[in-house]
Amino acid sequence: MRMQVVRVHCPVSGNLLARLQAGEAAALADDAVLSAVIAVIRGSDVLGAIGPYRGVFELGFGLESFVPQAEAVPTTGRAGEAAVVPTVVVKSYAPEGADIARELAAIAAAHPWEIPVIEVGVVGLVG
């Protein structure tokens, strides 16, 4: 089954990252960006839809690094210096060809970064 895949990189606090890694699901509601992204997925008929399931998403945990240039207006970090931030990657799916423009716009509007990292691609799911 071919699907669109959407990955949204969300900056979080180190404390929130640790809580999520420990399996504390309630922590999802404690971050405005993360909870907004999840609300978009749960409120959509297409994003997060795999067969008879809705609201499907996965979380990946890690660190993200970048070096803002002089013309950047970073939320975190300073121009010319490497920044490393705790990050949660929210991954979800939509049927291939589904119109997810409204969902992507809502996610981008909720994201704090000057240039949000929102990846869209196509994958094949087994099953």
Gap from first CA to last CA: 7 Å
Number of DSSP strand runs = 4
What's the architecture in CATH terms?
2-Layer Sandwich
Q: Which segments are poorly predicted (pLDDT under 50) over 5 or more consecutive residues?
A: none
Overview of the molecule:
By secondary structure, this protein is an alpha+beta fold. It has one domain (2-124): Alpha-Beta Plaits (2-Layer Sandwich), CATH 3.30.70. The protein is built from 3 helices and 4 strands; from the N terminus they run βααββαβ. The protein has helices at residues 14-21, 32-42, 101-110; strands spanning 2-11, 57-66, 83-95, 118-124. The protein has a 4-stranded antiparallel sheet with strand order 2-3-1-4, with helices on one face. It is globular and about 45 Å long. The termini are close together. The mean pLDDT is 95.
Question: Characteristics of this structure?
Answer:
single chain, 4-stranded antiparallel sheet, 4 strands, 127 residues, N-reg_PII/ATP_PRibTrfase_C, 3 helices, Alpha-Beta Plaits, alpha+beta
Topology:
Elements: E1 2-11, H1 14-21, H2 32-42, E2 57-66, E3 83-95, H3 101-110, E4 118-124
Antiparallel strand pairs: 1-3, 1-4, 2-3
Helix pairs in contact: 2-3
Summarize the structure.
With 127 residues, the chain is an alpha+beta fold. Helix content is 23%, strand content 31%.
